[in-house]
Design goal:
With about 300 residues, this protein is of the alpha+beta class. The protein has eight helices and 13 strands. The chain has a three-stranded mixed beta sheet. A hairpin with a 6-residue loop joins strand 8 and strand 9. It starts with 11 loop residues before the first strand and ends with a helix.
Length: about 300
């Protein structure tokens, strides 16, 4: 089995703002584009436009409808956090450590208490580059490893035998493998990744962030560069004075499923309360606005008269 390096001061990772993420999937597409032709590609795509598309994505975006008491006003009601299992994903209150549905627990896991006002949350998911990842320690060949210099978790494709033990050990579902889909013959030699069969995952674009041929402002993961709402941030979360650490402290950023003890480096920022301070459960009366046409330019005044006839 593979051992972990000593704890490092530098902890590169992502901070994802659930308040400004709109679920556009730009991060996922940019990640796929960069890595498909880079050092960690190709990323397989089988029948991408068919009824059952199958492929490898380092970054996936899930959308959930979350409910809770005054959910829009309180920033996800005392910071409800997502709990992702292999079978399903629901939102629970921070600090809860209830069992997964797979454990046979008959109690359903639902948001509590219920609220008539739901909130849509778009949740990007990728490798969290944990400080004590089981996906590394279970690897029998040393293919899965954690870098001592910056804490990034990577996979050595030359050592990986495709046993998928790391995928079973990761509770976040962050590892993927390029294998034929269930309804395709395993002997399909025409697939571009037919000889790969190794585990693949987010690399934090390690081949980009240290690339000195790029401008310094471009030395960020592709997903961060592509985000149109700046919902993704990249930096050293081990440095309390870094910009990302300050944002996490200011906004109350949280780790995903900390009860497992893997100490994820990536952080999520909860949605902010509503800016107008109004009660989301109370219907807001529409405000009727009047237009002072006398203050309009001559062309707009003529246009207003023409359209008002």
């Amino acid at each position: 089995m593979t051992s972990l390096p000593p704890p490092t001061k530098k902890k590169l990772g992502l901070v994802i703002d659930l308040d400004t993420c709109v679920g556009c999937h730009a991060c996922a597409v940019a990640c796929k584009e960069w890595n498909d032709g880079g050092d960690f590609g190709p990323l397989a795509d089988d029948d991408p436009y068919g009824a059952e598309p199958h492929g490898v994505w380092f970054n996936r975006v899930h959308s959930y409808e979350v409910t809770g008491p005054g959910i829009r006003d309180s920033g996800l009601a005392q910071r409800a956090v997502p709990r992702l299992d292999f079978d399903d994903a629901v939102y629970v209150q921070a600090g809860d450590a209830e069992k997964s549905n797979r454990s046979g627990d008959p109690a359903p896991r639902v948001p509590s208490p219920e609220s008539p006002v739901p909130q849509m949350v778009h949740f990007p998911r990728s490798c969290l580059h944990c400080e004590t990842p089981d996906c590394v320690t279970v690897c029998p060949t040393g293919a899965s490893y954690k870098r001592a210099e910056d804490g990034i978790v990577l996979v050595d494709q030359d050592k990986c035998i495709g046993c998928q033990l790391c995928a079973w050990a990761c509770p976040y579902g962050a590892r993927e493998i390029a294998l034929p889909p269930p309804k395709t013959s395993a002997s399909d030699a025409g697939r571009k990744d037919s000889k790969r069969g190794t585990m693949q995952k987010c690399t934090l674009c390690v081949d980009r962030i240290y690339n000195e041929t790029l401008d310094e402002r471009d030395r960020q993961p592709a997903c961060v560069m592509a985000c149109p709402t700046r919902a993704r941030m990249f930096g050293d979360l081990g440095d309390p004075d870094s910009e990302v650490s300050k944002v996490v402290a200011e906004r109350g950023g949280f780790a995903l499923m900390p009860e497992f003890g893997y100490q994820p480096v990536n952080r999520y920022l909860p949605p902010r309360p509503r800016r107008d301070g109004s009660n989301a459960t109370t219907p807001v009366q529409a405000v009727e606005e009047t237009l002072d046409t006398g203050k309009l330019p001559p062309l707009l005044r003529w246009l207003d008269k023409a359209l008002s006839r």
